[in-house]
Amino acid sequence: FRIMAGKVKWVTDIEKSVLINNFEKRGWIQVAENEDWNFYWMSVQTIRNVFSVETGYRLSDDQIVNHFPNHYELTRKDLMVKNIKRYRKELEKEGSPLAEKDENGKYIYLDFVPVTFMLPADYNLFVEEFRKNPSSTWIMKPCGKAQGKGIFLINKLSQIKKWSRDSKTSSFVSQSSKEAYVISLYINNPLLIGGKKFDLRLYVLVSTYRPLRCYMYKLGFCRFCTVKYTPSTSELDNMFVHLTNVAIQKHGDDYNHIHGGKWTVSNLRLYLESTRGKEVTNKLFDEIHWIIVQSLKAVAPVMNNDKHCFECYGYDIIIDDKLKPWLIEVNASPSLTSSTANDRILKYNLINDTLNIAVPNGEIPDCKWNKSPPKEVLGNYEVLYDEEMAQSDGTDRDLRGRPGQPMGVKGSRTRDSGKPVLTTWK
Amino acid sequence: MLDPDRGLSLTIARVVQRLQGSSLHSQLERQARVSLHKPEIKLESLKEDIKDFLKTSGWEKKLQNAVYSELNVFPSPCHPAAPPEHIKEPLAYMRKAQGSWEKRILKSLNSMCTELNIPLAQKRPANEQKELLNKWNEMGTDEPDLSLFRPVYAPKDFLEVLMNLRNPNYENGEQPSFRNHLGLIQVPLKVKDIPELKENFSELGLNIGQLGIDDSAQVPPEFFENEHVCVGQKVLAEQDSAAAQQYVRQGCPTALRADLWALILNISNQPEDILYYEQLKSNVIQHNLLVDSLIYKDVKLTASNDDYYFVFEDYLYQVLLCFSRDTSVLEHFTYSSANPPKSYIQGKLGMEEYAVFYPPNGVIPFHGFSMYVAPLCFLYHEPSKLYQIFREMYVRFFFRLHSISSHPSGIVSLCLLFETLLQTHLPQLFYHLREIGAQPLRISFKWMVRAFSGYLATDQLLLLWDRILGYNSLEILAVLAAAVFAFRAVNLMEVTSLAAAEAVLADLSTLKVMPLLQIFLFATVT
């Protein structure tokens, strides 16, 4: 027989101190990729190779990786939208009350992604929508890129002539997924604080999709644009005004390296409670939790729920001036670079708490375990949704606990040391 | 001693004089006149009927609030024969010290002015005016060259002055005996001891519910929080300043705080207030003041780098630039020990006809001044309301933190209160710190001067300022400072240098103020 004792052997292809320090503090041993490893924190390129059909890689029971094989169902902008649209249609077909629409045909509870089309595939559909509101602004995002690269705003059809399928001037031949774009209605009435635009970055850990078990990190943050927000058309080209990615903001003149233009979510809550009231603030945070869970439910059926996998996503959310949250995108590889000292501490703790949940007791993992960590190891995570627990409650909770309904849904107080957590809805 | 009836009638006379001619007065007159058309007003009982009408329509309450506000802000006259400077500051040596300090500040300002060859005030050319107007909401993006400007003074300069204050009537023997006060402040002012503080702050007692303690995650809201919120809503519905002031002693629910503070400070943001603010704004556009650069510099050095307040940088300019030009602030000098600096039109030095107050509001900002405004941005996002709240907070409280006076809420008394509390209740710690050259006041002074803004987490700071408003006093700042030292006493006993002591106390951002205060006042064995 073989003693399974010994230290966890780790590999990573991401050279970040917040990761490595966490491995080392657990006394884990670094090994190379071709050696026997137990834990591999890999970049998204590597996960593609590991699970690709050609390599025929088989993970053994004592090996864990930090991505699901087809995470792109959630993390690619076009696929995320596709899956959410599919999910909504399915619910509608089953006659679920969640798919209820209002008098304008908009989903009441599931309208949380701005109207989006794929280009060039849906070009004509897009044009139809565009003409309904010719003065609106749209944001073009390349499907395969991150960190705000390649994003631009348009408010005229001529600006995206290239993607028109009928376009004779189109030298745009390749339809490979790398060149695909999504175009979304730009939210031009974002909630402003101090006159500045911001978005929310929240971390969500998924340990299994079926049954769905996910955790939300209590210490999310707001990323502020350093330049004053103006919806004026002349500033459409100024990415410092419109994009909140730190990678972009860092190069603006006013970027500050002490606070990095970031606010904690608890500051946001304090500000909103003080200026808007407690009920609407609680409702906002409930809705944010709701849309995260719905997005995960939408992709759960198509996700390869490989038991060797867990994943920590970076959710980007924008709040509009009516206090409605919008899901902008989900990142599979949220940045582990630290832009300020506070940042470094936050990301270090994030990885620490993530590892405590994904690799119980810091010991050599057994991927067959039930993925139910005890409450004490959650650290700054709190349970966002636990499908098993929700089901074992027996009663049908689909009808209760939609956002805005007071029953059983309490906003979590991130400031205090963890009031027992939200989700009682399915 | 002044006979109480005499004192009362003097006070009434003063309040009446101040309210006469105010906009509230004319509104009341108008309301009374309008009420004549109402059927319930009868000629035979005209006076009574109008009074009843004003009561039921809420106008009497507004008048009550205004009177209450006056009583809170202006001290009661000590004696009908007392000269005006006694209302400002009864002790002659304090007045003298404040006067010298002011001369020093003004000299520093003037020399900066001469050195940089910049006038104290200048009219802006038309194109610059237009540009500023366009940029009004984003002055933070401006990058003026501020490298040559320095703050006129910093809190530690002020501390040096306070350390050297002496009462000339008091024998300061050369031999320090055990009776002598071992701290930095060497003037004999009366400060409260713990029994008196317990009585004064009785609502902070152990068996009374508090926000900041009894609303934490582990406590079910039914125990205190829900009821407290209900009471708060009732207080707001009644629009009663005095009730609000009593209520906030137990802390404000976050959703009600903005309105409660406005009620206590008697700020209602009327159209004429908004108009007044707009007028100040146009003054800013038209004229450039040297102090504007000082304000810019201060904001850039402090609030812009603060994790909580950087977001509101632009609001700070909008408030502080207007504040400098607000001559209504000059009124507070009647009860402040300070006097507004005077400047003379070029070439007419000494000629009173050519004297102007500089800056127009008489307040020269110092390093950290903008931190008085910053926390308020979490509560008020409408510039004119934010402005009025800040102005009222300044003329009621903050001015006492940077002027030399014997007032119990003045910075001198607060320093002495802090040192006395520490020396009396933590004598070992006090003595140890003194021995290693780390006089506690050297560390806590900056906390008190800033009313802890920038040192505590914002939610905690707001809970602290709730109590400042509730008790109409700044003494709680000194008590908190002592409580912080008490909390970190174990670590402080082990340090061997001022730098190490500073390090132990460098980060207050995780402290919870209400438990600290409660334990220090009510749960420490004296």
UniProtKB/TrEMBL annotation, chain A:
Keywords: ATP-binding, Cell projection, Cilium, Cytoplasm, Cytoskeleton, Ligase, Microtubule, Nucleotide-binding
Region (Disordered): 391-426
UniProt cross-references to Gene3D superfamilies, sorted A to Z: ATP-grasp fold, B domain
Signal peptide positions on this chain: none
Alphabetical GO biological process terms: microtubule cytoskeleton organization
MF (Gene Ontology): ATP binding; tubulin binding; tubulin-glutamic acid ligase activity
SUPFAM superfamilies: Glutathione synthetase ATP-binding domain-like
Catalytic activity as recorded in UniProt: (L-glutamyl)(n)-gamma-L-glutamyl-L-glutamyl-[protein] + L-glutamate + ATP = (L-glutamyl)(n+1)-gamma-L-glutamyl-L-glutamyl-[protein] + ADP + phosphate + H(+)
UniProt record similarity statement: Belongs to the tubulin polyglutamylase family.
PROSITE patterns: TTL (PS51221)
CC annotations in GO: ciliary basal body; microtubule
Major location (coarse): cytoplasm
Organism: Vidua macroura
InterPro entries according to UniProt: TTL/TTLL_fam
Location of this chain's protein in the cell: Cytoplasm, Cytoskeleton, Cilium basal body
Oligomer and partners: Part of the neuronal tubulin polyglutamylase complex which contains TPGS1, TPGS2, TTLL1, LRRC49 and NICN1. Interacts with PCM1, CSTPP1 and LRRC49.
Superkingdom as given in the UniProt entry: Eukaryota
The protein's name: Polyglutamylase complex subunit TTLL1
